[in-house]
Prior knowledge:
Chain A has 151 residues and is mainly α. Chain A is 75% helix and 0% strand. Chain A folds into two domains: 17-120, no CATH class; 122-151. The N and C termini of chain A lie far apart (61 Å). Chain B has two domains: 12-172, Peroxisomal Thiolase, Chain A, domain 1, CATH 3.40.47; 180-331, Peroxisomal Thiolase, Chain A, domain 1, CATH 3.40.47.40. Chain B has a six-stranded mixed β-sheet with strand order 1-9-14-13-10-11, with helices on both faces. Chains A and B meet through helix 1, helix 4, helix 5 and helix 6 of A and helix 6 of B.
Amino acid sequence: MDEKKYAKLEQGMSPKTPLVRNMVFAFLTGGTICLIGQFISLFYMSFFDFTERTASNPTVATMIFIAMLLTGFGLYKKIGQFGGAGSAVPITGFSNAVVSAAIEHKSEGYVLGVGGNMFKLAGSVILFGVFSAFAVALIKTILVKLGVVSW
Amino acid sequence: MVRKGLLTFKTMPSIATTGVTAGPLEKQSPFSDQFDKIYDDERCDTKTNEHAHAKMMEDACMIALSKVDANPSDADYLLIGDLVNQMTPSNFSATTLAIPYIGMFSACATSISTTIMAALLTEMGMSKYAVAGASSQHNAVERQFRYPIEYGAQKPETAQWTVTAAGVAVVTPQKKGTPSITCATIGTAVDLGMTDPLNMGAAMAPAAADTLYRHLKGHQTKESDYDCIMTGDLGKSGFEIYKKLAGNKGIQITENFRDAGAEFYGDDPLFLAGASGAGCSASVYFSEVIGKMMKGEYQRVLLIATGALLSPLSFQQKDTIPCIAHAVELTMK
Protein backbone atom coordinates (compact mmCIF):
# COMPACT_ATOMS: atom_id res chain seq x y z
CA MET A 1 0.00 0.00 0.00
CA ASP A 2 1.44 3.37 -0.90
CA GLU A 3 1.38 6.48 1.27
CA LYS A 4 -1.32 8.31 -0.68
CA LYS A 5 -3.69 5.37 -0.62
CA TYR A 6 -3.12 4.93 3.09
CA ALA A 7 -3.63 8.62 3.85
CA LYS A 8 -6.98 8.38 2.08
CA LEU A 9 -8.01 5.30 4.03
CA GLU A 10 -6.82 6.83 7.30
CA GLN A 11 -8.74 10.05 6.71
CA GLY A 12 -11.85 8.08 5.93
CA MET A 13 -11.62 6.06 9.12
CA SER A 14 -10.16 8.33 11.82
CA PRO A 15 -12.76 10.27 13.78
CA LYS A 16 -13.21 13.77 12.35
CA THR A 17 -12.43 16.86 14.38
CA PRO A 18 -15.87 18.32 15.22
CA LEU A 19 -15.04 21.76 13.82
CA VAL A 20 -18.40 23.46 14.37
CA ARG A 21 -18.70 22.11 17.91
CA ASN A 22 -15.14 23.18 18.71
CA MET A 23 -15.74 26.66 17.32
CA VAL A 24 -18.94 27.12 19.32
CA PHE A 25 -17.23 25.94 22.51
CA ALA A 26 -14.21 28.16 21.78
CA PHE A 27 -16.50 31.14 21.26
CA LEU A 28 -18.37 30.48 24.50
CA THR A 29 -15.21 29.81 26.54
CA GLY A 30 -13.31 32.79 25.14
CA GLY A 31 -16.38 34.97 25.55
CA THR A 32 -16.84 33.92 29.16
CA ILE A 33 -13.21 34.67 29.97
CA CYS A 34 -13.53 38.11 28.38
CA LEU A 35 -16.79 38.74 30.24
CA ILE A 36 -15.07 37.96 33.53
CA GLY A 37 -12.26 40.30 32.49
CA GLN A 38 -14.80 43.01 31.75
CA PHE A 39 -16.30 42.66 35.23
CA ILE A 40 -12.86 42.87 36.82
CA SER A 41 -12.13 45.95 34.76
CA LEU A 42 -15.40 47.57 35.90
CA PHE A 43 -14.55 46.61 39.46
CA TYR A 44 -11.24 48.47 39.27
CA MET A 45 -12.93 51.48 37.67
CA SER A 46 -15.73 51.78 40.20
CA PHE A 47 -13.87 50.96 43.43
CA PHE A 48 -10.42 52.36 42.63
CA ASP A 49 -9.05 55.36 40.89
CA PHE A 50 -8.71 53.81 37.42
CA THR A 51 -9.93 55.01 34.05
CA GLU A 52 -11.01 52.72 31.23
CA ARG A 53 -7.52 52.98 29.79
CA THR A 54 -5.52 52.45 32.97
CA ALA A 55 -7.75 49.67 34.35
CA SER A 56 -6.39 47.24 31.76
CA ASN A 57 -3.09 46.68 33.60
CA PRO A 58 -4.54 45.51 36.94
CA THR A 59 -7.22 43.57 35.03
CA VAL A 60 -4.62 41.64 33.04
CA ALA A 61 -2.62 40.97 36.20
CA THR A 62 -5.74 39.65 37.95
CA MET A 63 -6.67 37.41 35.01
CA ILE A 64 -3.13 36.03 34.91
CA PHE A 65 -3.29 35.35 38.64
CA ILE A 66 -6.61 33.49 38.37
CA ALA A 67 -5.34 31.40 35.42
CA MET A 68 -2.19 30.64 37.42
CA LEU A 69 -4.27 29.26 40.28
CA LEU A 70 -6.44 27.23 37.89
CA THR A 71 -3.32 25.80 36.24
CA GLY A 72 -1.82 24.87 39.59
CA PHE A 73 -4.97 23.09 40.65
CA GLY A 74 -5.08 21.17 37.38
CA LEU A 75 -8.29 22.81 36.16
CA TYR A 76 -7.03 24.88 33.26
CA LYS A 77 -6.18 21.84 31.11
CA LYS A 78 -9.78 20.70 31.54
CA ILE A 79 -11.04 24.09 30.38
CA GLY A 80 -8.51 23.81 27.52
CA GLN A 81 -9.81 20.44 26.36
CA PHE A 82 -13.33 21.89 26.31
CA GLY A 83 -12.64 25.39 25.08
CA GLY A 84 -9.70 24.93 22.71
CA ALA A 85 -8.64 28.23 21.17
CA GLY A 86 -11.18 30.00 23.38
CA SER A 87 -9.02 29.37 26.43
CA ALA A 88 -5.66 29.49 24.62
CA VAL A 89 -5.93 32.90 22.93
CA PRO A 90 -6.83 35.21 25.89
CA ILE A 91 -4.15 36.33 28.33
CA THR A 92 -5.18 33.45 30.61
CA GLY A 93 -3.89 30.99 27.98
CA PHE A 94 -0.56 32.81 28.01
CA SER A 95 -0.46 32.53 31.78
CA ASN A 96 -1.27 28.82 31.54
CA ALA A 97 1.56 28.26 29.04
CA VAL A 98 4.09 29.98 31.33
CA VAL A 99 2.94 28.46 34.61
CA SER A 100 2.51 24.91 33.29
CA ALA A 101 6.08 24.98 31.95
CA ALA A 102 7.35 26.40 35.25
CA ILE A 103 5.62 23.66 37.28
CA GLU A 104 6.87 21.00 34.91
CA HIS A 105 10.52 21.97 35.15
CA LYS A 106 10.70 22.64 38.87
CA SER A 107 12.38 19.24 39.32
CA GLU A 108 15.45 20.53 37.45
CA GLY A 109 15.96 23.44 39.83
CA TYR A 110 15.06 27.13 39.74
CA VAL A 111 17.70 28.45 37.37
CA LEU A 112 18.08 25.80 34.67
CA GLY A 113 14.64 24.29 35.26
CA VAL A 114 12.05 26.94 36.01
CA GLY A 115 14.01 29.91 34.66
CA GLY A 116 15.29 28.20 31.56
CA ASN A 117 12.03 26.59 30.52
CA MET A 118 9.30 28.92 31.74
CA PHE A 119 8.95 30.61 28.37
CA LYS A 120 9.52 27.59 26.19
CA LEU A 121 5.91 27.73 24.97
CA ALA A 122 5.20 31.39 25.62
CA GLY A 123 8.51 32.61 24.20
CA SER A 124 7.26 32.49 20.64
CA VAL A 125 4.09 34.33 21.69
CA ILE A 126 6.26 37.14 23.06
CA LEU A 127 8.57 37.19 20.04
CA PHE A 128 5.86 37.25 17.41
CA GLY A 129 3.56 39.41 19.54
CA VAL A 130 6.21 42.11 19.91
CA PHE A 131 7.16 41.84 16.26
CA SER A 132 3.56 42.16 15.03
CA ALA A 133 2.99 45.10 17.38
CA PHE A 134 6.07 46.74 15.88
CA ALA A 135 4.91 46.07 12.31
CA VAL A 136 1.41 47.37 12.95
CA ALA A 137 2.75 50.50 14.72
CA LEU A 138 5.09 51.14 11.79
CA ILE A 139 2.24 50.93 9.30
CA LYS A 140 0.08 53.23 11.35
CA THR A 141 2.91 55.76 11.82
CA ILE A 142 3.40 55.89 8.05
CA LEU A 143 -0.34 56.30 7.45
CA VAL A 144 -0.53 59.11 10.02
CA LYS A 145 2.50 60.89 8.48
CA LEU A 146 0.85 60.64 5.06
CA GLY A 147 -2.28 62.13 6.53
CA VAL A 148 -4.50 59.11 5.69
CA VAL A 149 -5.54 58.55 9.31
CA SER A 150 -4.99 60.38 12.57
CA TRP A 151 -3.92 58.98 15.96
CA MET B 1 16.87 -22.75 8.61
CA VAL B 2 17.19 -19.02 8.29
CA ARG B 3 13.88 -17.22 7.93
CA LYS B 4 13.46 -13.50 7.85
CA GLY B 5 12.52 -12.42 11.35
CA LEU B 6 10.62 -15.61 12.11
CA LEU B 7 11.65 -17.44 15.26
CA THR B 8 10.57 -20.85 16.51
CA PHE B 9 11.46 -21.94 20.02
CA LYS B 10 11.93 -25.71 20.15
CA THR B 11 12.45 -25.81 23.92
CA MET B 12 9.35 -23.69 24.43
CA PRO B 13 10.53 -21.38 27.25
CA SER B 14 7.88 -20.52 29.82
CA ILE B 15 6.57 -17.29 31.24
CA ALA B 16 6.80 -18.58 34.79
CA THR B 17 5.41 -15.51 36.53
CA THR B 18 4.67 -11.88 35.92
CA GLY B 19 4.63 -8.69 37.94
CA VAL B 20 2.53 -5.64 37.18
CA THR B 21 2.48 -2.30 38.99
CA ALA B 22 0.39 0.75 38.14
CA GLY B 23 -0.36 4.32 39.15
CA PRO B 24 -3.45 5.64 40.98
CA LEU B 25 -5.33 6.69 37.85
CA GLU B 26 -5.07 3.14 36.53
CA LYS B 27 -7.38 1.98 39.34
CA GLN B 28 -10.26 2.69 36.99
CA SER B 29 -8.92 0.29 34.38
CA PRO B 30 -11.06 -2.84 33.96
CA PHE B 31 -7.79 -4.78 34.38
CA SER B 32 -6.82 -3.11 37.65
CA ASP B 33 -7.92 -5.99 39.91
CA GLN B 34 -5.32 -8.13 38.19
CA PHE B 35 -2.45 -5.73 38.79
CA ASP B 36 -0.12 -6.80 41.59
CA LYS B 37 0.40 -3.37 43.05
CA ILE B 38 -1.29 -0.01 42.63
CA TYR B 39 0.30 3.07 44.15
CA ASP B 40 -1.81 5.75 45.81
CA ASP B 41 0.61 8.46 44.78
CA GLU B 42 1.46 9.08 41.13
CA ARG B 43 5.04 9.71 42.16
CA CYS B 44 5.10 6.56 44.31
CA ASP B 45 6.14 8.76 47.26
CA THR B 46 9.39 9.68 45.55
CA LYS B 47 10.59 13.15 44.65
CA THR B 48 10.27 13.12 40.89
CA ASN B 49 8.17 11.44 38.23
CA GLU B 50 11.30 9.82 36.87
CA HIS B 51 12.11 8.24 40.23
CA ALA B 52 8.54 6.96 40.41
CA HIS B 53 9.00 5.51 36.94
CA ALA B 54 12.09 3.58 38.07
CA LYS B 55 10.44 2.47 41.30
CA MET B 56 7.42 1.00 39.49
CA MET B 57 9.72 -1.08 37.31
CA GLU B 58 11.83 -2.15 40.27
CA ASP B 59 8.77 -3.23 42.25
CA ALA B 60 7.30 -5.10 39.28
CA CYS B 61 10.56 -7.06 38.91
CA MET B 62 10.74 -7.81 42.64
CA ILE B 63 7.10 -8.97 42.70
CA ALA B 64 7.54 -11.19 39.64
CA LEU B 65 10.72 -12.78 41.01
CA SER B 66 9.23 -13.28 44.48
CA LYS B 67 6.43 -15.35 42.94
CA VAL B 68 9.00 -17.97 41.87
CA ASP B 69 10.77 -17.62 45.20
CA ALA B 70 13.71 -15.97 43.52
CA ASN B 71 15.76 -12.93 44.41
CA PRO B 72 17.26 -10.48 41.97
CA SER B 73 20.57 -12.21 42.65
CA ASP B 74 19.14 -15.41 41.17
CA ALA B 75 18.12 -13.74 37.91
CA ASP B 76 20.42 -14.11 34.93
CA TYR B 77 19.28 -11.28 32.71
CA LEU B 78 17.27 -8.11 32.96
CA LEU B 79 15.91 -6.94 29.62
CA ILE B 80 13.73 -3.89 30.10
CA GLY B 81 13.03 -0.57 28.50
CA ASP B 82 10.94 2.58 28.61
CA LEU B 83 10.31 5.77 26.63
CA VAL B 84 12.30 8.37 28.56
CA ASN B 85 15.49 9.74 26.97
CA GLN B 86 18.38 7.28 27.28
CA MET B 87 15.96 5.07 29.27
CA THR B 88 17.15 6.40 32.61
CA PRO B 89 14.23 4.90 34.60
CA SER B 90 15.16 1.42 33.40
CA ASN B 91 18.84 2.15 33.98
CA PHE B 92 18.19 3.25 37.55
CA SER B 93 16.04 0.25 38.36
CA ALA B 94 18.73 -1.97 36.85
CA THR B 95 21.24 -0.37 39.20
CA THR B 96 19.13 -1.21 42.23
CA LEU B 97 18.25 -4.71 41.07
CA ALA B 98 21.86 -5.49 40.07
CA ILE B 99 20.84 -8.11 37.51
CA PRO B 100 23.01 -8.30 34.34
CA TYR B 101 21.17 -5.80 32.19
CA ILE B 102 20.62 -4.74 28.63
CA GLY B 103 18.25 -1.82 28.08
CA MET B 104 16.11 -2.35 25.04
CA PHE B 105 14.13 0.21 23.10
CA SER B 106 11.30 -0.62 20.73
CA ALA B 107 9.05 2.21 21.95
CA CYS B 108 5.73 0.74 23.03
CA ALA B 109 6.62 -2.65 21.51
CA THR B 110 9.36 -3.14 24.11
CA SER B 111 7.24 -5.58 26.16
CA ILE B 112 7.39 -8.09 23.32
CA SER B 113 10.87 -7.37 21.94
CA THR B 114 12.32 -7.99 25.41
CA THR B 115 10.24 -11.16 25.84
CA ILE B 116 11.57 -12.46 22.51
CA MET B 117 15.17 -11.78 23.53
CA ALA B 118 14.60 -13.43 26.92
CA ALA B 119 13.12 -16.46 25.16
CA LEU B 120 16.14 -16.63 22.85
CA LEU B 121 18.62 -16.56 25.74
CA THR B 122 16.58 -19.26 27.47
CA GLU B 123 16.34 -21.33 24.30
CA MET B 124 20.12 -21.23 24.00
CA GLY B 125 20.39 -22.66 27.49
CA MET B 126 22.06 -19.54 28.79
CA SER B 127 19.39 -18.32 31.12
CA LYS B 128 17.35 -19.79 33.93
CA TYR B 129 15.56 -16.63 34.95
CA ALA B 130 15.36 -13.80 32.46
CA VAL B 131 13.26 -10.79 33.42
CA ALA B 132 11.68 -9.02 30.45
CA GLY B 133 9.31 -6.09 30.37
CA ALA B 134 8.59 -2.43 29.89
CA SER B 135 7.15 0.53 31.73
CA SER B 136 5.90 4.06 31.26
CA GLN B 137 4.93 6.85 33.62
CA HIS B 138 2.40 9.35 32.32
CA ASN B 139 4.00 12.58 33.55
CA ALA B 140 7.56 11.59 32.74
CA VAL B 141 6.70 10.52 29.20
CA GLU B 142 4.18 13.21 28.28
CA ARG B 143 6.51 16.03 29.29
CA GLN B 144 9.09 14.69 26.92
CA PHE B 145 6.92 13.96 23.91
CA ARG B 146 4.18 16.56 24.23
CA TYR B 147 3.36 19.70 26.17
CA PRO B 148 3.74 20.32 29.91
CA ILE B 149 1.17 18.26 31.85
CA GLU B 150 -0.84 21.27 32.96
CA TYR B 151 -0.85 23.00 29.58
CA GLY B 152 -4.39 23.39 28.28
CA ALA B 153 -4.07 22.16 24.71
CA GLN B 154 -7.11 20.64 23.06
CA LYS B 155 -6.46 17.05 22.04
CA PRO B 156 -8.26 15.36 19.16
CA GLU B 157 -10.29 12.18 19.57
CA THR B 158 -7.42 10.15 18.14
CA ALA B 159 -5.05 11.14 20.95
CA GLN B 160 -4.04 8.55 23.51
CA TRP B 161 -3.18 8.73 27.17
CA THR B 162 0.22 7.38 28.28
CA VAL B 163 -0.37 4.89 31.07
CA THR B 164 1.47 4.80 34.35
CA ALA B 165 2.30 1.12 34.63
CA ALA B 166 5.09 -1.42 34.52
CA GLY B 167 4.81 -5.04 33.51
CA VAL B 168 7.46 -7.73 33.56
CA ALA B 169 7.58 -11.44 32.85
CA VAL B 170 10.03 -13.96 34.22
CA VAL B 171 11.06 -16.22 31.36
CA THR B 172 12.36 -19.64 32.39
CA PRO B 173 13.03 -22.96 30.67
CA GLN B 174 9.85 -24.96 29.98
CA LYS B 175 7.80 -25.34 33.12
CA LYS B 176 4.53 -27.29 33.31
CA GLY B 177 1.35 -25.36 34.01
CA THR B 178 2.62 -22.04 32.70
CA PRO B 179 2.23 -20.39 29.29
CA SER B 180 5.07 -21.26 26.94
CA ILE B 181 6.57 -19.18 24.17
CA THR B 182 6.39 -21.21 20.98
CA CYS B 183 7.28 -18.78 18.26
CA ALA B 184 7.73 -15.12 17.47
CA THR B 185 8.02 -12.68 14.63
CA ILE B 186 10.37 -9.70 14.63
CA GLY B 187 8.67 -6.79 12.94
CA THR B 188 9.98 -4.62 10.16
CA ALA B 189 9.76 -0.86 10.57
CA VAL B 190 6.84 0.42 8.52
CA ASP B 191 6.30 4.05 7.62
CA LEU B 192 3.29 5.06 5.58
CA GLY B 193 3.87 8.77 5.91
CA MET B 194 1.84 9.60 9.01
CA THR B 195 3.14 12.69 10.82
CA ASP B 196 0.63 13.43 13.58
CA PRO B 197 1.93 12.46 17.04
CA LEU B 198 -1.64 12.85 18.33
CA ASN B 199 -2.78 10.08 16.02
CA MET B 200 -0.25 7.34 16.65
CA GLY B 201 -2.81 4.59 16.25
CA ALA B 202 -3.09 5.38 12.56
CA ALA B 203 0.70 5.45 12.25
CA MET B 204 1.13 2.08 13.98
CA ALA B 205 -1.79 0.21 12.42
CA PRO B 206 0.06 -0.73 9.19
CA ALA B 207 3.00 -2.12 11.20
CA ALA B 208 0.63 -4.25 13.28
CA ALA B 209 -1.21 -5.56 10.24
CA ASP B 210 2.09 -6.32 8.51
CA THR B 211 3.48 -8.28 11.46
CA LEU B 212 0.20 -10.16 11.90
CA TYR B 213 0.23 -11.14 8.24
CA ARG B 214 3.89 -12.17 8.31
CA HIS B 215 3.37 -14.20 11.49
CA LEU B 216 0.36 -16.10 10.18
CA LYS B 217 1.99 -16.77 6.84
CA GLY B 218 5.49 -17.48 8.13
CA HIS B 219 4.41 -19.84 10.90
CA GLN B 220 1.64 -21.31 8.78
CA THR B 221 -1.16 -20.68 11.21
CA LYS B 222 -4.61 -19.22 10.78
CA GLU B 223 -6.25 -16.39 12.68
CA SER B 224 -8.86 -18.90 13.88
CA ASP B 225 -6.14 -20.95 15.63
CA TYR B 226 -5.89 -18.31 18.34
CA ASP B 227 -8.23 -17.65 21.23
CA CYS B 228 -7.01 -14.09 21.26
CA ILE B 229 -4.93 -11.88 18.99
CA MET B 230 -4.12 -8.83 21.05
CA THR B 231 -2.38 -5.72 19.78
CA GLY B 232 -0.57 -3.36 22.14
CA ASP B 233 -1.74 0.22 21.99
CA LEU B 234 -3.38 1.07 18.71
CA GLY B 235 -6.19 2.78 20.58
CA LYS B 236 -9.81 2.89 19.50
CA SER B 237 -9.29 4.63 16.16
CA GLY B 238 -6.03 2.86 15.25
CA PHE B 239 -7.55 -0.52 16.09
CA GLU B 240 -10.32 0.01 13.53
CA ILE B 241 -7.80 0.90 10.84
CA TYR B 242 -5.67 -2.13 11.71
CA LYS B 243 -8.66 -4.45 11.43
CA LYS B 244 -9.50 -2.93 8.07
CA LEU B 245 -5.90 -3.36 6.84
CA ALA B 246 -5.76 -6.95 8.11
CA GLY B 247 -9.11 -7.63 6.43
CA ASN B 248 -7.70 -6.27 3.18
CA LYS B 249 -4.89 -8.82 3.44
CA GLY B 250 -7.49 -11.58 3.57
CA ILE B 251 -7.43 -12.11 7.34
CA GLN B 252 -10.78 -12.93 8.93
CA ILE B 253 -11.57 -10.40 11.69
CA THR B 254 -13.31 -11.97 14.66
CA GLU B 255 -14.27 -11.16 18.23
CA ASN B 256 -10.91 -12.61 19.25
CA PHE B 257 -9.14 -9.49 18.05
CA ARG B 258 -8.44 -7.22 21.00
CA ASP B 259 -6.37 -4.13 21.65
CA ALA B 260 -4.89 -3.44 25.08
CA GLY B 261 -4.83 0.34 24.54
CA ALA B 262 -8.44 0.54 23.38
CA GLU B 263 -9.64 -1.45 26.39
CA PHE B 264 -7.34 -0.07 29.06
CA TYR B 265 -9.48 2.77 30.36
CA GLY B 266 -12.86 1.32 29.40
CA ASP B 267 -15.19 3.73 27.66
CA ASP B 268 -14.23 6.87 29.61
CA PRO B 269 -14.26 9.70 27.02
CA LEU B 270 -11.67 11.58 29.08
CA PHE B 271 -9.02 9.23 27.69
CA LEU B 272 -10.08 9.82 24.06
CA ALA B 273 -8.78 6.95 21.90
CA GLY B 274 -7.51 5.01 24.92
CA ALA B 275 -4.16 4.16 26.42
CA SER B 276 -0.65 4.09 25.02
CA GLY B 277 2.87 3.85 26.35
CA ALA B 278 5.33 1.04 26.84
CA GLY B 279 3.59 0.08 30.08
CA CYS B 280 0.23 -0.38 28.34
CA SER B 281 0.88 -3.61 26.47
CA ALA B 282 3.26 -4.83 29.19
CA SER B 283 0.73 -4.43 32.00
CA VAL B 284 -2.22 -5.92 30.10
CA TYR B 285 -0.33 -8.82 28.51
CA PHE B 286 1.29 -9.77 31.80
CA SER B 287 -1.91 -9.58 33.84
CA GLU B 288 -5.07 -10.07 31.79
CA VAL B 289 -3.67 -12.37 29.08
CA ILE B 290 -1.37 -14.50 31.23
CA GLY B 291 -4.13 -14.66 33.86
CA LYS B 292 -6.66 -15.95 31.35
CA MET B 293 -4.14 -18.53 30.13
CA MET B 294 -3.47 -19.76 33.66
CA LYS B 295 -7.21 -20.09 34.20
CA GLY B 296 -7.52 -22.06 30.99
CA GLU B 297 -9.74 -19.53 29.23
CA TYR B 298 -7.10 -19.00 26.56
CA GLN B 299 -5.12 -21.90 25.12
CA ARG B 300 -3.23 -20.12 22.39
CA VAL B 301 -2.70 -16.41 21.98
CA LEU B 302 -0.83 -14.06 19.70
CA LEU B 303 0.49 -10.85 21.22
CA ILE B 304 1.47 -8.06 18.85
CA ALA B 305 2.96 -5.05 20.59
CA THR B 306 3.19 -1.90 18.52
CA GLY B 307 5.59 1.00 18.84
CA ALA B 308 5.93 4.41 17.23
CA LEU B 309 9.63 5.09 16.68
CA LEU B 310 9.55 8.86 16.82
CA SER B 311 11.32 11.44 18.93
CA PRO B 312 10.14 14.95 19.85
CA LEU B 313 12.87 16.25 17.55
CA SER B 314 11.94 14.08 14.58
CA PHE B 315 8.34 15.19 14.46
CA GLN B 316 9.23 18.84 14.99
CA GLN B 317 11.50 18.49 11.98
CA LYS B 318 8.40 17.29 10.12
CA ASP B 319 9.65 13.73 9.73
CA THR B 320 7.16 10.93 9.35
CA ILE B 321 6.62 8.36 12.11
CA PRO B 322 8.19 4.95 11.47
CA CYS B 323 6.48 2.19 13.42
CA ILE B 324 7.27 -1.33 14.52
CA ALA B 325 5.30 -4.32 15.72
CA HIS B 326 6.74 -7.47 17.26
CA ALA B 327 4.71 -10.61 17.81
CA VAL B 328 5.01 -13.51 20.18
CA GLU B 329 2.87 -16.60 20.35
CA LEU B 330 2.02 -18.26 23.66
CA THR B 331 0.43 -21.63 24.25
CA MET B 332 -0.84 -23.34 27.33
CA LYS B 333 -0.38 -27.08 27.38
